[in-house]
Amino acid sequence: MVNVYDPVTPLPKDRLEFQNRILKGRYKPILDLYPRSTQNSKRRSFQKNWYDIFDWLEYSDASDTAFCFPCRCFKGNEINSCYSDTTFSKKGFKSWYRAIDAFKKHQLSKCHLNSVKALNDFIHLKSIDCVLDKNRLKEISRKEKDRLKNREFMKRVIDIIICLGKSGRPFRGHDEKSDSCNQGLFKELVILLTKYDIVLQNHFQDVQKNALYTSNRIQNDLITSIKNVILQNIKNSLKNSFISILADETTDVGHSEQLSIVFRYFDDEKNRPVETYIALKQMKSVTAQAIFDVLHEVLILMGKDWHSVLSVCFDGASAMAGKIGGV
């Protein structure tokens, strides 16, 4: 889950929430090992000592990119309207092999100097809203605390979902009433962890019954979000990579035709070829055209096209590997 203070997270629209975010300062995660990528034939990565050299520098561990805190906060300021370069304010910088030169050049730019001035002015000038209504600032602070508490709770729920998903276990029970002896694995695990975890205990003590976040709808929304994050991570690792497609069609216990799809490609970070499971698709038909259409759909989903496919690997079935009518 992306940290709420990570530079890739959109800044708050509300003025008081925005002010609260500004006062938190730049985001500086300290990692034991930053992601490495091949640049100019060498393995390079972000360096944590850069934080001390450049007091405006931020790092996004979600996207492995560097940002400028003042420029990110005030890129929409009128004084910067004529500057089109958004590398340090929106896109993120990742060319580590020339980082020092790029950072020095950026901090001398007119856009950066304008943003630093705007940041200092914003910090030292009290918001009129705060002067007129201090209670509103307290309310914002309370909401921020509630949001952080909810995030800690959701982390535990997401871990439970990932655990059940990885092991292929069913989530829901036939009878999920509070007096049921078996409410299903999802709820039973939540109940079990609540006995030992203070965050879960506080959540269920403080919230209303309509905000428990354990319903099947919330669970399915979280599963979809996890799926989207996984797919995005795979898409990021596939950038500029040639791939091989491995696919096989089988029939499940319900006699439904399914097509499993795997991509093989070279992973720059791991510095070796990897095989990644991409999808399991339900098939309405097992003709060569139907299988091709599904493969094409998955390629588009992953941001690839057939020009990036080096090879395909199927079994010996005629629909898959036939010389004339095969995929």
From TrEMBL:
It comes from the Eukaryota. Pfam families: DUF4371 (PF14291). Coiled coil: none annotated. Residues 42-146 form the TTF-type domain. PANTHER family: DUF4371 DOMAIN-CONTAINING PROTEIN, PTHR45749. This is Zinc finger MYM-type protein 1. It comes from Sipha flava (yellow sugarcane aphid). The gene is ZMYM1_111.
